[in-house]
């Protein structure tokens, strides 16, 4: 079990919103402790695909999935799977920072409390550890009881990452986590993603090809619901095999 172990293995995935097929025949491997970037033009299915990885699409009525998503070798679409447990293992961070209108502390403690952690010492420990891992502790440790709404957008996004880390996931899904942030806050999140991969497997949707090139190890290029090409980031950007990939990364469309 080395670094190349496929944490996530997607096989022949199709996805429908009612009659509309948003994903077709998608195959993807996301290796453990690596960053996998999903790129492609608007509307090509990146977010839909990301949400199939922790069954967030289940919450949207009229959707249907066919195919397999194996996480640690187990198909998450098998019957009787415990979805609450799945989402604990597969955390998610969204485009717009969305902290709860609660204190910084309570945002991070929310998940552990929901999963039954009651001891104040244990909660303190988890909150501190999660905020440290999200590179936010130094900036907020003296105001944990203040509202999360009062911190900057970049800090709010790191708080959302801390909130995701607090339930001890092993995969983190990020849907354009920096698109609402300024360049300085974006750089901090990118730095953080690089640190986090030591302990987590990360799948990130990004509109920015520069960002994908900077922070990811693997890249998958989506076009109209299909993966055109996937592989090591360097190869996708420097020696793409498909003309459509080359056209996209050189800015000819999208
Ligand atoms: N809840 C929904 N109901 C119906 N169709 C949807 C829904 N969400 C997305 N779609 C459609 O599915 C397709 C893929 O959308 P998706 O948001 O996954 O693409 P995307 O690549 O993430 O786009 P963007 O980069 O603009 O976020 C689009 O045609 C979109 O209109």
Automatic annotation (TrEMBL):
Key words of the record: ATP-binding, Cell membrane, Membrane, Nucleotide-binding, Phosphate transport, Translocase, Transport
One GO BP: phosphate ion transmembrane transport
Chief place where the protein resides: membrane
SUPFAM superfamilies the UniProt entry points to: P-loop containing nucleoside triphosphate hydrolases (SSF52540)
MF (Gene Ontology): ATP binding; ATP hydrolysis activity; phosphate transmembrane transporter activity
CDD domains: ABC_PstB_phosphate_transporter
Listed GO CC annotations: plasma membrane
InterPro entries in UniProt: AAA+_ATPase (IPR003593), ABC_transporter-like_ATP-bd (IPR003439), ABC_transporter-like_CS (IPR017871), P-loop_NTPase (IPR027417), PstB-like (IPR005670)
Membrane topology: Peripheral membrane protein
The UniProt record lists the keyword Transport: yes
Subcellular location: Cell inner membrane
Pfam family, one: ABC_tran
Every ABC transporter domain range: 8-249
Protein task: Part of the ABC transporter complex PstSACB involved in phosphate import. Responsible for energy coupling to the transport system.
Name this polypeptide is given: Phosphate ABC transporter ATP-binding protein, PhoT family
Upper classification of the organism: Bacteria, Bacillati, Bacillota, Clostridia, Halanaerobiales
């Amino acid at each position: 079990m080395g670094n190349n172990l496929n944490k996530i293995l997607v096989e022949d995935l199709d996805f429908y919103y009612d009659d509309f097929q948003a994903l077709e025949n998608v195959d993807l491997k996301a290796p453990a402790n690596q960053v996998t970037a999903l790129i492609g033009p608007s509307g090509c299915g990146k977010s839909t695909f990301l949400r199939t990885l922790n069954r967030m699409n289940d919450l949207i009525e009229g959707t249907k999935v066919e195919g397999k998503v194996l996480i640690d070798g187990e198909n998450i679409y098998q019957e009787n799977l415990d979805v609450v447990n799945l989402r604990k293992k597969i955390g998610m961070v969204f485009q717009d920072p969305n902290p709860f209108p609660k204190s910084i502390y309570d945002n991070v403690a929310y998940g552990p409390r929901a999963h039954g952690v009651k001891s104040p010492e244990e909660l303190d420990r988890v909150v501190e550890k999660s905020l440290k891992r999200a590179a936010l502790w130094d900036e907020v440790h003296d105001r944990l009881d203040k509202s999360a709404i009062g911190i900057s957008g970049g800090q709010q996004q790191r708080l959302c990452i801390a909130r995701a880390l607090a339930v001890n996931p092993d995969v983190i899904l990020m849907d354009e986590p920096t698109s609402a942030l300024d360049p300085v806050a974006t750089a901090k999140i990118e730095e953080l993603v690089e640190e986090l991969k030591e302990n987590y497997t990360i799948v990130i949707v990004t509109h920015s090809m520069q960002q994908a090139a900077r922070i990811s190890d693997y890249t998958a290029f989506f076009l109209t619901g299909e993966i055109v090409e996937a592989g090591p980031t360097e190869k996708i950007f420097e020696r793409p095999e498909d003309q459509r990939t080359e056209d996209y990364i050189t800015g000819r469309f999208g």
